[in-house]
Amino acid sequence: MIVAGIGCRRGCGGEEIVALVRDALARAAQPASALRALATASFKSDEIGIWEAASALGLPLLVMDDPALRSAEPRCATHSAVARRATGHSAVAEACALAAAGERSTLLLPRLASDRATCALAEDGGP
Questions:
Q1: Distances (CA, A) of 19 to 79, 99, 108
Q2: 38-64 pLDDT, tens digit each
Q3: Where are the beta strands (DSSP E) in the chain?
Q4: Selection from 80, 72, 84, 85 nearest residue 125 by Cα
Q5: CA 84, CA 1: separation in Å to the nearest integer?
Q6: pLDDT for the residue numbered 125
């Protein structure tokens, strides 16, 4: 199972997020059918663009709370001081993807950024 973790700036549109997710899948050489969900942080759950992207892609949106993100952070490839100051977490998209894909998940693609959004892909660790 592959999960796309999503972070974005306030007001980011769904089209930009959809394009970024598709770019991430292409860079990871994964078909769109392999993607099972989008995941975002609870503090981003009010962003309409993320919900629009999930709807456009026909995927559920999983909302990750702070403890889940903190638990996943040691497995993140990116550790941004800017993100930590702004959100309390050093890697929002990566932590969301890893937390949603499960405790044994690994990053398939580290954070990829567009103008207003970030996306990372994680794959579950199997049974």
A1: 24, 23, 18
A2: 999 999 999 999 999 999 999 999 999
A3: 2-8, 35-41, 61-64, 106-113, 117-123
A4: 72
A5: 28
A6: 77
pLDDT over 90 for what percent of the chain?
A: 86
With a CB cutoff of 8 Å and minimum separation 6, the contacts of 19 are: 114
- State how far the Cα of 9 lies from the Cα of 30, in Å rounded to an integer: 26
Task: Look up residue 11 and give its two tokens.
Answer: 């007001």
Q: Which CATH architecture best describes the domain 2-123? A: 2-Layer Sandwich (3.30)
Rg (CA), the chain: 13
Q: Contact, 50 vs 18, CB < 8 A?
A: no
Unique residue bearing structure tokens 């199972």? 1
pTM greater than the 0.90 cutoff: yes
What are the structural domain ranges in the chain?
2-123
pLDDT of residue 80: 75
Instruction: Give the separation between CA 94 and CA 6, rounded to whole angstroms.
Output: 8
- Model confidence at 3: pLDDT above 80: yes
